[in-house]
């Protein structure tokens, strides 16, 4: 929903007490259409101003944003003119989706001066405009020339004027509210006190936001009151943007891993073909033996040898191709050399195929991690794991940043036993071989990729019900999540081993039992 005039009015009424008197400490422009003002008043707050076509808005934010390597020109202009200024007034022109901030500061000579920052939240025409005390536009986020808008150009040096009123009615009302008026047959509900309202689909996904209860969708959409208009925008846009970024990063990592997996599978397939060819090595040795036994019958320049095949049985003849450039002894030596090469190749190829199959299993496990990941921090850890494994190049801009690792998911069974669930392969190793005690119980979905799960025994013996609860979590955080029933193996941690040099999360285990459970998650404890 575009942020309409009624919602904006309620939002500004909520924000203004904190904005008036606040000093602009820092100015950032993390995205092309977004400005963040770090304000210092009774408390420190970050005010996000977005002029995006699909997400124009104003609200306080606690989200973290990465700054570009070099600040954009408009950001530098704002820093020059309004850094250190205080907000003295917040004004919304009647019926307009615009907010005008009056800012009081000092010029380069220390003399008091006043400027205005006009924030127009009008869909694809949204803009952020800096205006001097005489009403002249100093600059704007999005310049609009006379060719694009003959009625209202927005350029440095022109006098700032408010946007022209729309020709049709419904001033400042969103399509959602227009449809609601039509559905109810009256606009009486607009006179009620506005309430920040999130519209949710049955699965809990945020669908829209507004300032009142919406009836037009019936039971198909739920209306959830929020604590404030600012917090509602923060939840709806900022979290949605974070989810979209996570999906984009997950998609990028998934593509990288799938490409690596495809290369590995092609390499292993080629090595299997070579191994099949190397399986004929005994033929080469036998040819060498037959040539040696028939030296007396051979001359240099012979194209082939037809001799009795004492490996094939009585009366069986074998035709052996010869190199006409070699004498009989050299032809025999060539076949023995081919035999030795094939024998060595079989050993090397067997090892390489085993390594390739292990690499493929590891990459498949990473794909499973990406499917189960939830949030930026988990994706960051998977990316670091891939950097360490050599599949992704390190991001030098983030190498010096100290990032606190995530903790394993934590649950408590009905009987009070703690259950820990790894979030990625690196954490799985940490959980199994450093965190867990040898007498704890280790669980993992059978023959599928998934998290390592530890049921903390605390010196006691967990019952079948506790094991079943932990097994349900092991199945849920695995490739078996969507299945009705899944087999989960469990054993004592002391029976879980890691092969030297194996990829993160890759283990083998013995002395295990198997339980069939329905995958399921419970609230973290």
In a nutshell, what does this entry contain?
The chain is 35% helix and 22% strand.
What percent of residues adopt helix (DSSP H or I)? 25-40%
Beta-strand fraction estimate: 15-25%
Name the CATH class of the largest domain. Mainly Alpha
Query: How many DSSP helices?
Result: 10
Q: In the residues, how many domains can be counted?
A: 4
The CATH topology of the largest domain turns out to be Helix Hairpins
CATH architecture of the largest domain: Orthogonal Bundle
Rg to the nearest angstrom?
36 Å
Largest sheet: 6 strands, antiparallel
Extract low-pLDDT stretches. Answer: none
Mean pLDDT: 90
Distance N to C terminus: 37 Å
Describe this structure as you would to a colleague.
This protein has 525 residues and is of the alpha+beta class. It has four domains: 5-140, ibrinogen binding protein from staphylococcus aureus domain (ibrinogen binding protein from staphylococcus aureus fold), CATH 2.30.310; 175-226, no CATH class; 245-406, Helix Hairpins (Orthogonal Bundle), CATH 1.10.287; 409-517, no CATH class. 35% of the residues lie in helices and 22% in strands. It contains ten helices and 22 strands. The strands form six sheets. It has a six-stranded antiparallel sheet. Strands 5-6-7-8-9 form a five-stranded antiparallel sheet. Helix 5 packs antiparallel against helix 6. The longest helix has 50 residues, at 229-278.
Topology:
Blueprint: H1 5-19, E1 23-31, E2 34-40, E3 44-50, E4 57-60, H2 73-82, E5 86-91, E6 98-106, E7 112-120, E8 127-131, E9 137-140, H3 175-184, E10 197-200, E11 206-210, E12 222-225, H4 229-278, H5 281-293, E13 304-308, E14 317-321, H6 328-372, H7 376-389, H8 396-399, E15 409-412, E16 418-421, H9 425-435, E17 441-445, E18 453-455, H10 464-476, E19 486-492, E20 496-497, E21 508-509, E22 513-517
Antiparallel strand pairs: 1-2, 2-3, 3-4, 5-6, 6-7, 7-8, 8-9, 10-11, 10-12, 13-14, 15-16, 16-18, 17-18, 17-19, 19-22, 20-21
Helix pairs in contact: 4-6, 5-6
């Amino acid at each position: 929903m575009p942020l309409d005039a009624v919602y904006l009015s309620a939002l500004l009424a909520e924000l203004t007490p904190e904005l008036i008197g606040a000093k602009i400490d820092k100015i950032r422009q993390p995205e092309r259409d977004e400005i963040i003002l770090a304000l210092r008043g009774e408390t420190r707050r970050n005010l996000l101003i977005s002029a995006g076509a699909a997400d124009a808005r104003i609200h306080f934010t606690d989200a973290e944003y990465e700054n570009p390597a070099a600040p954009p020109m408009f950001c530098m202009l704002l820093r020059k003119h309004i850094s250190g200024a205080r907000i003295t007034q917040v004004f919304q022109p009647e019926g307009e989706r615009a907010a005008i901030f009056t800012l009081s500061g000092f010029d380069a000579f220390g003399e008091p001066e006043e400027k205005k920052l006009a924030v127009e939240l009008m869909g694809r025409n949204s803009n952020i405009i800096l205006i001097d005390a005489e009403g002249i536009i100093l600059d704007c986020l999005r310049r609009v020339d006379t060719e694009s808008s003959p009625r209202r150009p927005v350029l440095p040096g022109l006098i700032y004027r408010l946007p022209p009123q729309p020709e049709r009615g419904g001033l400042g009302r969103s399509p959602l509210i227009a449809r609601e008026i039509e559905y109810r047959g009256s606009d009486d509900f607009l006179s009620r006190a506005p309430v920040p309202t999130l519209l949710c689909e049955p699965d809990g996904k945020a669908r829209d936001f507004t300032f009142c209860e919406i009836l037009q969708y019936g039971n198909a959409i739920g209306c959830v009151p929020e604590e404030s208009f600012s917090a509602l925008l923060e939840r709806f846009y900022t979290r949605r943007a974070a989810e979209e970024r996570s999906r984009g990063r997950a998609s990028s990592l998934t593509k990288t891993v799938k490409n690596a997996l495809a290369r590995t599978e092609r390499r292993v397939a080629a090595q299997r073909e070579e191994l099949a060819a190397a399986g004929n090595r005994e033929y080469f040795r036998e040819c060498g033996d037959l040539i040696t036994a028939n030296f007396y019958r051979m001359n240099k320049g012979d194209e082939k040898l037809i001799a009795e095949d004492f490996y094939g049985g009585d009366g069986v003849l074998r035709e052996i191709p010869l190199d006409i450039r070699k004498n009989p002894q050299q032809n025999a030596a060539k076949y023995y050399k081919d035999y030795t090469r094939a024998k060595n190749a079989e050993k090397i190829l067997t090892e390489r195929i085993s390594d390739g199959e292990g690499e493929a299993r590891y990459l498949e496990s990473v794909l499973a991690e990406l499917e189960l990941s939830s949030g930026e921090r988990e994706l960051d850890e998977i990316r670091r794991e891939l950097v360490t494994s050599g599949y992704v190049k390190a991001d030098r801009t983030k190498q010096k940043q100290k990032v606190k690792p995530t903790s394993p998911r934590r649950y408590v069974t009905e009987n009070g036993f703690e259950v820990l669930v790894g979030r990625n392969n690196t954490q799985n190793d940490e959980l199994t071989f450093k965190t867990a005690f040898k007498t704890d119980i280790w669980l993992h979905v059978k023959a599928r990729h998934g998290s390592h799960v530890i049921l903390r025994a605390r010196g006691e013996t967990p019952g079948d019900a506790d094991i079943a609860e932990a097994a349900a979590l092991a199945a849920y955080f695995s490739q078996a999540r969507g299945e009705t029933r899944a087999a989960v193996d469990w054993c004592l941690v002391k029976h879980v081993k890691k092969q030297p040099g194996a990829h993160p999360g890759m283990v083998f285990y013995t002395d295990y039992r198997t339980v069939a459970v329905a995958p399921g998650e419970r609230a973290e404890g």
